[in-house]
From TrEMBL:
<dbReference type="InterPro" id="IPR050742">
    <property type="entry name" value="Helicase_Restrict-Modif_Enz"/>
</dbReference>
<dbReference type="GO" id="GO:0004386">
    <property type="term" value="F:helicase activity"/>
</dbReference>
<feature type="domain" description="Helicase C-terminal">
    <location>
        <begin position="422"/>
        <end position="591"/>
    </location>
</feature>
<dbReference type="Pfam" id="PF08463">
    <property type="entry name" value="EcoEI_R_C"/>
</dbReference>
<protein>
    <submittedName>
        <fullName>DEAD/DEAH box helicase</fullName>
    </submittedName>
</protein>
<dbReference type="InterPro" id="IPR014001">
    <property type="entry name" value="Helicase_ATP-bd"/>
</dbReference>
<dbReference type="GO" id="GO:0006304">
    <property type="term" value="P:DNA modification"/>
</dbReference>
<keyword id="KW-0067">ATP-binding</keyword>
<dbReference type="InterPro" id="IPR001650">
    <property type="entry name" value="Helicase_C-like"/>
</dbReference>
<feature type="domain" description="Helicase ATP-binding">
    <location>
        <begin position="184"/>
        <end position="351"/>
    </location>
</feature>
<feature type="region of interest" description="Disordered">
    <location>
        <begin position="579"/>
        <end position="615"/>
    </location>
</feature>
<dbReference type="InterPro" id="IPR027417">
    <property type="entry name" value="P-loop_NTPase"/>
</dbReference>
<keyword id="KW-0347">Helicase</keyword>
<dbReference type="Pfam" id="PF00271">
    <property type="entry name" value="Helicase_C"/>
</dbReference>
<dbReference type="GO" id="GO:0005524">
    <property type="term" value="F:ATP binding"/>
</dbReference>
<dbReference type="GO" id="GO:0016787">
    <property type="term" value="F:hydrolase activity"/>
</dbReference>
<feature type="compositionally biased region" description="Acidic residues">
    <location>
        <begin position="595"/>
        <end position="606"/>
    </location>
</feature>
Length: 832
């Protein structure tokens, strides 16, 4: 068998050695999950769309019970060294929140145990049995020997809820880890438990499965099912989980929403608003009608809000139910010493954290692009003329007004109108098949949201003619009509509203998977608020093909991405450049280089305290200084003395950005030019004929030199398709069109013509070499001709085919490979 075993591949090794070894240790077939898919694979950006990276897949996961994993097994072929699988097994186990991993080549077994006080790597004669590993698992969780621990951690999940394809809605790996950590904490009699999961990662499903498993472990609660209170501070945070998740699973007889001043009993899962529980006279509020020990478990959704502050009037609710296990759920824990708000102080450190960065890397959340735009009045400030009156005839106090004043003290009507036009232009430019992406706009306050709605409505006459509800305002002042509009807006298959304008109402607690654009026109200094706002767009929506979203930032709120307290880097950050008429003439990629983020500092997520609040919670600050809060008492008094909001119009507002200039005909002055004119003149300065440009562009080496020469003239060739509004056209065709007016040909058209005219060329290569060339054609379709070079062989999908040296050998060596790629480019770019 020895020589035959060395010829086996990995699959044959598993069948011949690994699976029998597991069976001999009493692992049943249903306990061994093969090709265990851990995540979906991160979304990798291309020029036009996104592709998924490779998913993480473990060879085997050992489960004590369905969806209760204990260990990972990574198998290698028999002739490989067993240690070759150690790092991979350890990586997968840590991802799954497990302390045990095994690497094997069929002949040897290595156990990696990295839980507890003494992590070890050691060789074993056999795999541990399920009961042995279960006992060790309980020990790792600190519940070995406790009846509650064994029953809670072996309680089954509930699979009543179904996906759209009627398959069971199974929890994702991180949701299972979070549930396991919470159950173990309960079994250890920890009364306050914190779970931190990024917005869009399914905290409601997590809560449902947690309650389901608790209900399936009656022995942990004296032989009965536990009574659970689900607590929040907004109706949508209560009604959505109740109606969409808990009612289908537990039924109407066991689910109840507390309200109407009546304390009903006899149910298993209760939902309540703090506001409802607070009804009644002091010391006789509704929540006091339930004894302190009536509820076994209290789930506090968005626990960074509501009762998070020690001096909150709602903290008394949690304190009344202090005998219960209290589980806090949030995406954004808060620590603010000034406001005496500390999620950690009350709930303790999180037993599990799943960040936005984790969600994007796993392919469960949408990556995003950022487009920053500043207006001239935001950059320069606005100062009224002496004695100038606003539109209501009130004299405006002499001062320099800036972003901290706008919409609170000073309203410039044109500021909102220019921003609205920019948003509309973006929606029209990015529409797919005539459909514009659903867009959520955050404004300073309800008044500002109303003006933004009006400005968009007036600018979008074409769209409003077809879709009367094209743009709506949804705020706490819009009542039932606003909520009805929200229900339509959140539907994936509804074509209107397209744009929803809000202030704060939709920043948290509502699922909006179809949103493709988040517009920030509201100043934000609070990291929790910023992350909640961004979270409105992070949900994937495969039903409509949404795999990414755009952020349009008018107020530099996205500078918070650079804060160590934020953990999800943008795919791309774009700074727009505009001329004096407000037309975009350039877009510069200013994405910072990727770095490993530091661990978030709890102090960094504190929300600054406002010295003075006007209606809708706005702080009255001024342009002077850099702080978000005015600390000079005289300055605060001066702001308060103004005491009103001034509205002005006929202000010259335009988009502000870097401008491109060119020497005018007089040889002395400079004139502003468009991107097309700039490219035209710079290409002609290269003193090349169209054919020479095409020839040099076709060869990777000379193409690199051309691109460097263009960069020296401030032209980024790879950005030209986006900047010139032709994302489907290759850079070389845009250069030829701008300089000499040659017709534009899309990359797809070039590919079709190439395949018709150059079949013989492709057929002249071996099958393995053709695989590489076909991959290059796909790269061209996605990203354009700059990718037609040997360096591209280092990235997917080529890196999955083998090392660069192995790929070039398919052509007979490096030189032959370079020549083949250059010939491919030459033929591809010459077809017409």
């Amino acid at each position: 068998m020895g020589s035959d075993a060395h010829k086996m591949n990995e699959d044959e090794t598993c069948r011949a050695f690994v699976l029998p070894a597991l069976a001999s240790s009493k692992w049943g077939e249903k306990q061994i999950r093969s090709q265990y898919r851990i995540n979906n694979g991160g979304l990798v950006p291309t020029r036009r769309r996104h592709k998924r990276g490779a998913a993480l897949v473990a060879d085997y996961v050992l489960e004590y019970l369905p969806d209760v994993p204990l260990a990972v097994v990574e198998a290698k072929r028999y002739r490989r060294n067993v240690n070759d699988g150690v790092e991979q097994a350890r990586r997968y186990a840590r991802k799954l929140g497990l302390s045990f991993a095994y690497a094997t080549n069929g002949s040897e077994i290595v156990e990696i145990s990295f839980g507890g006080e003494k992590p070890t790597i050691k060789s074993l004669e056999r795999f541990p049995t399920p009961d042995e590993l279960w006992a060790r698992f309980l020990g790792e969780q600190g519940v070995l020997g406790t009846k509650a621990g064994g029953e809670l951690l072996s309680a089954p999940y509930d699979y009543t809820l179904r996906n759209t394809d009627n398959t069971p809605k199974r929890p994702r790996y991180y949701q299972r880890v979070a549930v396991t950590r919470a159950l173990a904490a309960l079994a250890r009699d920890e009364r306050r438990i914190l779970l931190v999961l990024a917005t869009g990662t399914g905290k409601t499903l997590l809560a449902l499965q947690l309650v389901a498993r608790l209900s399936n472990a009656p022995g942990a609660f004296g032989g009965r099912k536990p009574r659970v209170l689900y607590l929040a501070d907004r109706n949508m945070l209560v009604d959505d989980p109740k109606d969409r998740y808990f009612l289908p699973v537990f039924g109407e007889d066991d689910v109840h929403k507390i309200g109407g001043g009546e304390a009903k009993r006899g149910r298993k899962v209760y939902f309540a608003l703090y506001q409802s529980l607070e009804q009644g006279e002091a010391e006789a509020e509704l929540f006091r009608q339930y004894e302190p020990d009536y509820f076994d478990v209290v789930i506090v959704d968005e626990c960074h809000r509501g009762s998070a502050s020690s001096n909150s009037r709602w903290r008394k609710v949690l304190e009344h139910y202090s005998p219960a296990f209290q589980i806090g759920l949030t995406a954004t824990p808060v620590k603010d010493d000034k406001k005496k708000t500390d999620t950690y102080e009350y709930f303790g450190n999180p037993v599990y954290t799943y960040s936005l960065r984790d969600g994007i890397q796993d392919g469960f959340l949408s990556p995003y692009r950022v487009r920053r735009l500043r207006l001239n009045v935001d950059m320069e400030g606005y100062r009224p003329k002496p004695g100038e009156q606003d539109i209501y005839g009130r004299v405006i106090p002499d001062d320099v007004y800036g972003p901290k004043d706008y919409e609170r003290v000073m309203v410039i009507l044109e500021r909102t109108e220019v921003a609205a036009q920019y948003v509309l232009d973006h929606l029209r430019a990015t529409a797919e098949d005539g459909l514009q992406g659903k867009t959520l706009v955050f404004c300073e306050n309800n008044h500002h949201a109303g003006r933004m709605r009006d400005a968009l409505f007036n600018a979008a006459s074409e769209e409003v003619g077809r879709l009367p509800d094209y743009v709506v305002r949804i705020t706490n002042a819009d009542g039932d009509p606003g909520m009805a509009a929200l229900e339509e807006f959140r539907k994936e298959d509804s074509n209107q509203p397209v744009v929803a304008v809000t202030s704060k109402l939709l920043s948290t607690g509502v699922d909006l998977p179809a949103v493709r654009n988040i517009v920030i026109f509201r100043r934000m200094a609070s990291m929790p608020e910023f992350k909640q706002v961004i979270g409105r767009g992070t949900r994937l929506c495969p039903e409509i093909g949404k795999e990414s979203f755009d952020i349009i930032d008018f107020v530099e709120a996205t500078r918070l991405f650079d804060d160590v307290a934020f953990d999800g880097p943008a795919l791309r950050v774009v700074e727009d450049t505009a001329d004096e008429q407000g037309t975009i003439v350039d877009s510069e990629d200013v994405t910072p280089p990727a770095e490993e983020p530091e661990e978030p500092d709890a102090e960094a997520v504190a929300e600054p305290e406002s010295p003075y609040n006007q209606e809708e919670g706005g702080s009255l600050n001024v342009l002077h200084g850099t702080a978000d809060t005015v600390t000079d008492p005289d300055e605060v008094d001066r702001i308060r003395a103004r005491g009103r909001r001034y509205t002005v119009k006929d202000v010259d507002v335009y988009k502000w950005g870097e401008r491109r200039y060119q020497l005018a005909d007089d040889g002395r002055s400079m004139r502003l030019v468009s991107i097309e004119q700039w490219v035209h003149d710079r290409v002609l300065e290269l003193s090349l004929e169209p054919g020479e440009l095409r020839t040099q562009w076709a060869r990777a080496k000379s193409r690199g030199l051309l691109m460097e020469a263009l960069k020296e003239s401030d032209i980024n060739a790879e950005m030209l398709p986006a900047e010139m509004g032709n994302p489907d056209v290759d850079p070389v065709d845009l250069l030829l069109n701008a300089a000499w007016g040659l017709p534009l040909v899309s990359r797809d058209e070039r590919l079709v013509r190439f395949r018709k005219e150059h079949r013989t060329f492709l057929g002249s290569f071996t099958e393995q070499a053709r695989e590489v060339l076909e991959g290059m054609l796909l790269k061209f379709a996605e990203s354009g001709s700059p990718q037609l070079k040997a360096e591209t062989l280092k990235v997917p999908p080529f890196s999955n085919m083998g090392r660069v040296v192995e790929l070039t050998q398919r052509f007979g060596g490096g030189k032959a490979a370079h020549e083949a790629l250059d010939e491919l480019a030459s033929r591809l770019l010459s077809v017409s």
